[in-house]
Amino acid sequence: MDKERLQHIAIIMDGNGRWAKERGFKRTRGHEAGAETIRDITTYCAEHKTIQSATFYAFSTENWKRPKIEVEFLMKLLDKYLKNELKTYQQYNIRFQAIGNIDAFSKSLQNRIRETERLTKDNSNLTQILALNYGGRAEITMAVNTLIKEGKKEIREEDISQALQTSYTDIDILIRTSGEERISNFLLWQLSYSEFYFTETLWPDFRAKELDDILQKFTQRHRRFGGL
Ligand code: FPP
Asked: Quick one: pLDDT at residue 226?
């Protein structure tokens, strides 16, 4: 594709369960395959430097409602993923960041997340952001509360943007896999002017080629930001 570097893409990774079911596997096998896809897409983006940041919706505030055994599996998988990925982050010059309320996670998982952020903070090919125990409304509410505590009497849009968890750039493209067409409380503030792409592909089957096709289409769309 044309090497116009995008600021930020966001992905709602959906369809792990269906992918596993189609193959007669347990749902957890689908999450393992999904984690491999995160790695493949992340390293591809870092190598090709077409994007500055990529945010992946890995665990939403609503995901706690899943069976306990699946939630526990996802926590273990995340821990294993970060442990194994450190080498990859350093090799591909990837910075790792987390957004969301990770206080709800075990102390050891919280330490793993903070340590991985610290060890990769100077990497610059790509910032990979995992949304963990994340909800868009919760993030905006927290930002407003921060501003109230700072004593702000009147809040401007820029104040909220700056008070959000990461010094966030707007999202250029949101991708959701598996045919569902919803935002599901993801990055509500940052998606204001994003292009949306919905694909039938189940997340474990999502490949760099499809991402490239999407990026290609995006560069052909003319974004007007409300103007003409
Ligand atoms: C949705 O599939 C996916 C999630 C619960 C979030 C994404 C999780 C992963 C890719 C796994 C691991 C992540 C990390 C960072 C190690 P679903 O279960 O809702 O699929 P379904 O709609 O087909 O049931």
From this structure: 64
Ligand 1: distance of its center to the CA of 158 in Å? Answer: 33
Catalytic annotation, pick one of 2, 16, 40, 63: 63
Residue 58 alpha carbon to ligand 1 centre in Å: 7
- Number of continuous H segments (helices) and E segments (strands) in the chain: 7, 6
Dihedral angle sign, alpha carbons of residues 30, 36, 37, 39: positive
Distance from CA of residue 208 to its chain's centroid? 16
Chain centroid to CA 48: 19
Interval 126-182: pLDDT, tens:
999 999 999 999 999 999 999 999 999 999 999 999 999 765 688 999 999 999 999
Task: Write the single-letter amino acid at 225.
Answer: F
Looking from the CA of residue 74, the nearest atom of ligand 1 is 12
| pLDDT value of residue 22 | 98
- Strand-pair partners of 94: 126
Give pTM, 2 decimals.
0.94
Question: Which residues' Cβ are closer than 6 Å to ligand 1?
Answer: 13-18, 31, 34-35, 38, 58, 63, 77-78, 81, 130, 203
What confidence tens digit (pLDDT) does each residue in 58-68 have? Answer: 999 999 999 99
Mean pLDDT to the nearest integer, 92-116: 97
Give the distance, in angstroms, between the CA of residue 116 and the centroid of all CA atoms in the same chain.
Answer: 16
What would the two tokens of residue 22 be? 């189609």
Distance CA 52, CA 18 (A): 31
